[in-house]
């Protein structure tokens, strides 16, 4: 059997790992004994960026990744992280199934990443100590951001003070008042018990966290084309399974947050939020093939 | 500069080689100090901009990480030949003379092989990694070019030193064996084991016993697992190593080392001792109690037990001996109390633990205070019981005297407050707090006029060298941990620690047995990096609080600073004070028992308060 070392960032009970159990099940049924899946959990093989490097260097054969972690190799993929462009999960899915999704797959392949399918981690929402519904209320407030120019620019444009903090120290920083807000997906919000320190989740859905299921190209090339087809089909089915699991997980997560006193609030004055994001579109434009491309996505059905 | 070098220079070719090697090492030492200084200025600028002007530098963190990789690359050649090489030479000494000679050849060959791996593996990464750092706009391969050069210089220095010490034939033999090991890792195909990490462990153990530097032994162990079926190509091995040191959190290590150095150099630590003496100097075993309280205070500002032991051995041992303590016993008290430094925050051990497991440094800090208190109390009782014969050193201090020495010690106590408040409440990251500690120590020492340019530069160079050696170890432990993760060694460890049933108490007991056994032969830092990710899941599953378990793990492993054969704190205290390690190991036993009792108390408390997780 050929060993496939797979890296998952989270434990066996999370969609990030369950997708690989599904892929293994499908592949083992079609090609019994052909592969030995080693699904290494809890980020024991490193974070997203290190895993992507490992996939290029041959120590890891497959994993999931957010597209933002891949932007070091494929800067064009940042178009999927453009804020206030996608209206809902269906909008994201249609764009990925169209020309943009296919173009990006070719660009990933040129960088030694074989991408059979895209996944949706859910949308990022604003998390705060109070019900902040309009951008005007962000003025002077400190927000924890991931270390990314795109995120920093967005919150600056909206009037807040962005501060990069590692996720492990974020709870502490929110509790002690070093920062007042952050943004995250619903699953992670409940996973880190952040409702204890930022009880308000404002459903801004400002950035849809898109990801890829991907394999290492040097490994892929050692397989027969029939085997490639089986793996690709299994990965695609796994991706759909993942998206369904995330939706389930989000519902359960919000129920957990609500039981602990968390509150969900709708944002107001959407045009004001979008106006803040326009500047980021302009800055992002040159990297992703022009700001027109972003505008076009925003207008598509 | 040292001028004796020229007067005593040997003649001819070997003389020129010696001068060249000295110059390379000196240049690397100064370069390391300069890189650390630049990193310090960068982090402080970023902190100032963010907190004073409300606007950060998005690229400062990434750049600081790159500078840390550069620091390790520059320091690696020094760490392999200098006194910072972590070589275990205790076992070799008991071997017959001829075996000793063979072991030394093997140890040096392993160091050569590891350096070749760094040089060529990093070159491989340069060619294959691609990508551009999004925040810096620089190609990712740049970092690895530095590593490649550092590896090449290590080969050069190892070969040169070997030639100077043992002559050309032996130097060539070492080089040939090193190159042979390198080729063997690529060409041989011996077996296809289900767990190739076992082979890596066996090779590393042989290297360790032969007296090869620990980081290099780990690298060679992983590389020689390839003939046994491991799938970690050489560039990926080096990439893992560099990922291991590419963490912003780890920058706190050079800064805490620097703060500790400035504390001693600038005379702040002496003030702590006077204050401690005014508090407990009159008790039974008063001077030993003073040593304990001084160490606790020093620990609050420093993150390194080694710095603590070195300071205690320099300052407290002469005083203890003058008051009737035997030299080994004085050194034992210093060594035992120095272990507190890595438990009482700040702590380099907790930083390493947090980087290996993603536990929160802020939470570990709170746990460290509690555990530190329990351990200090146990040591106080241990000193009280075993200090029957020593008379009180002094009359109880008057309230006024205590107040005065307290005020005098405030600058040093302030350093601890800056760090703890910085991490827990005010400042965002541990690394920034550690940089603030350095800034604070610099300002205070300059105001008190206790530092000059020369001592300042030497403090930077010293901290840079030590940090590079620690960084190299942290890095080289990473591919080993990677291999164990792929081999699912943690499942095996879980089976072992749940062998007596999965109850919290049973898991706690077996985990401690595993740690006590592994800690006998592993360096503390390496043991944390390799064992914490393996043991933590099992402990969490048994309902033990992960933070409490992390603290207990560090306490357990720090106790090994006092046990033979590795007992680093005993060696440091002996080395600085001139005591014989074997005698110090004997004298430290009562205090070791006190610490083990405290460990048992911590474990039982944690096991009794454990709550099975509901997931
Ligand atoms: Na400390
Ligand atoms: Na210390």
TrEMBL record, chain B:
Domain of life: Bacteria
Subcellular location field: Cell inner membrane
GO terms under cellular component: plasma membrane
UniProt domain Tripartite ATP-independent periplasmic transporters DctQ component: residue ranges: 40-160
Domain TRAP C4-dicarboxylate transport system permease DctM subunit: 205-606
Sorted UniProt keywords: Cell inner membrane, Cell membrane, Membrane, Transmembrane, Transmembrane helix, Transport
Membrane topology: Multi-pass membrane protein
Molecular functions per Gene Ontology: transmembrane transporter activity
UniProt entry tagged with the keyword Transport: yes
Function per UniProt: Part of the tripartite ATP-independent periplasmic (TRAP) transport system.
PANTHER family: SIALIC ACID TRAP TRANSPORTER PERMEASE PROTEIN SIAT-RELATED, TRAP TRANSPORTER LARGE PERMEASE PROTEIN
Name of the protein in question: ABC transporter permease
Gene source species: Pseudolabrys taiwanensis
